[in-house]
Amino acid sequence: MYYDEAADAVQKALNTSETGLSSGEAENRLQKYGKNELEEEEKTSVVKLFLSQFKSFLILILMAAALISAFLGELIDASVILFTVILAGVLGFVQEYRAEESIKLLKSLTSPEALVVRNGKETKVPSSLLVPGDILVLQAGDRIPADARLLETISLKIDESSLTGESVPVEKNTKIFPPETPQPDRKNMAYTGTSVTYGRGKAVVTATGMSTAFGKLAGLIGEIERERTPLQEKLDQFGRWLGTATLVVVAFVAMIGILQGFDPFEMFLWGVALAVAAIPEALPAVVTVGLALGVRRMVKRHALVRKLPSVETLGSTNIICTDKTGTLTQNKMTVEKLYVNGTLLSVTGRGYEPVGDFFKEGQSVPEDVHLHKLLVTGTLCNDAGLAQEDGIWNMMGDPTEGALVVAAAKAGIWKIALEKKHRRIGEVPFSSERKMMTTLNTSEGRLYAYSKGAPEVILASCTKIFHGGQEEELTPEMKQKILDTVHELANQTLRVMGFAYRQVTENILPEEAEREMVFAGLMGMRDLPREEVKVAIATCKSAGIRTVMITGDHRTTAFAIAREIGIYREGDIVLTGVELDALENKEFEDIVEKVSVYARVYPEHKLKVVEALKKKGYVVAMTGDGVNDAPALKAADMGIAMGITGTEVSKEASSMILTDDNFASIVSAVEEGRNILKNIKNFIAYGLTCHIGVVLIVLVGVLAWQILPVIAVQILWINLITDGLPPMALSLEAPNRGLMEQKPRKSKEGLVSRRMLIASLGLGSLIAIQSLGVLYWALKEGVSLPKIQTLIFTLIVISLMFNAFNWRSDRYSVFSLGIFTNRSLIYAVLSTVLLQLAAIYVPIMQTAFRTVPLSLSDWGMIIPLASTTLIAMEITKYLERKTPR
Hints:
It is found in: Endomembrane system. This protein is an alpha+beta fold.
């Protein structure tokens, strides 16, 4: 359908035109056809998500214990157990639901966009909003968002391997094909899920969503999938290890308790409660929420992480390989120097406003035929546009090409008027491999080829030069002088492009026009470094992260800029693509750690750099924006695509997208990634302290005094209120000031370090010693058992609230961080304390938890004792800071 009809007939059938649909018509069609999305698998309902919280083996045992308690007449115990189980389920549900919603948000943020013509103007819209009749503008690197009939093709090639399995890109055209033509041979069609590898074109959307060829073959392919992160796998391993150890201890103590005369059912219930308290079942959900909330914070810092596992990689990154243009620089090119007729000219003016003059040695340059020829060549061999809107001049297209259009406009040469006179009839698009672009333009019955590109590539295609008002032979001496000028301009950190033209015969292939050309001149343009880049690179250095520049620019330009912004250090190596190709893999691996600048490189060189660095054991982040950058982005530990200039193919291959194309945002993302991991490890240490303390208290109480210091329902309550809000609040902790002064985390580093384990064990033991001290004192004073259990029950909870402040940072004092800088933790601690007060003062809860009211003198003992948890950690941190490392 549509491939066997003429292009204008297809447009007529779809009731559209080259000016595209109006916004209103697009909205009407969206209502009729639905969103351009594949049908998703049935989502887990809210009810199922809630019920899934009760599938845990230990939770099921608790529910069975509640039923047995009710059967034996212990209705209060049964009610309390069921209440805590349901409340724990609600908390788990809220955490998982928030994680799901965060992941949905990430998915919507990473949805691809399409360039369409609507209301007569080119505009970007989310691919999901495309409708039949939309006019698509296709460029190299685009992912085809819907099935479409091609209306216009210029050297257009599309990779259809995802649909047909054919590995070679298909060259497309606009011819009409017979109805019996099989799908792979319909070269006038473009299909959803395929990608443009070369050239450009226009097409009219013929099918969207499940009506597309791909929709008929496949179900949902999500950009962000709910997958288990390496961090969660480590958590599971840690949980299994801790759980196994706990179950052994619990079984041992329960047996001792039964032998000492405790009721078997009471010991069974107590054992299950202690196992639930000791095994960190809630941590994976808390980790997921922590990751998701951290990723949402990254979005505010212009870094969109596409998959949660990438956060862990960010924390371990120790080398960032970055493009120059637009990432390290502002990507706002301005032509400053011209070389024509053997002379250097200066150009005034800034930005995209077409106001400026041309000077030679301080004198204004009158109209000059050589200057005119150079500017015309740069304007016709160009896909950018310049337009004024609300008094502001805006550039549409590539900034480098935009600079050429602006330079010509300063001389009164306007692109729109020029193209009407010199109509383009063919072109050879620019590619990073060829490093040049050529167009064929016709004017007054004559056909000309205009080329621009890397100076050495343009010179290689030239045999003549426009000099002294005429075309002369390009001698070796002239070539050398031009190359010397290129070097001189590059030393001034200017990006230099060469330009050439040639009159050609009709019916010539565009590729054949790039021979025996006439050299027209050079243009040198400047793209100033971003102001924040120097600071970001210095931050990387202090964080133990090396920055490497990879650019297609001339070696001298790349070196000068790298030295200016602090990437190049004395003794480093600058390597060109040619030099890299000449090296054997082993030779390159031997020097790769010393190379800080790669100049004049192709995309495939990026892959070689990534592989060599990874072999050396580095965790590599690599930036890219082109279709050919995809292999390197996939191979890197952290592939980073550009959100503004990046192609859809590069975004799909990446782990993270920069929404502002700014290097400083990578550094911000690394800091946020480190902070997320720091917070996760800290709330694990907080939880570990809690579990160690409770197990030790009960273990020693039973063995030494044949007394249960806390009963089963109290253990469940401790687990519920201390593992709920405080860990969530700890996941919101801001980065500590010294975070980016630490060395990168080792990728194979365990979840709990030896230092953290010792600290958690020490604090857990301290809580146990305090509680057992109270138990010893209370027994000696003849205090009743319910009062003893209430004292210890409350002391544990309050100690753990003090402990929560310890783990805002494992290095810095909570007082230096500022007590109120994490308000969420303040609210979480206050809420937990209020719940504990309710457990010991509200009559119905007193009955449920077997508690008695505490007096002011009791609190006078509990609070100072509990605060020692914070004091001990503060002293430890102080001694660590004072001890030379």
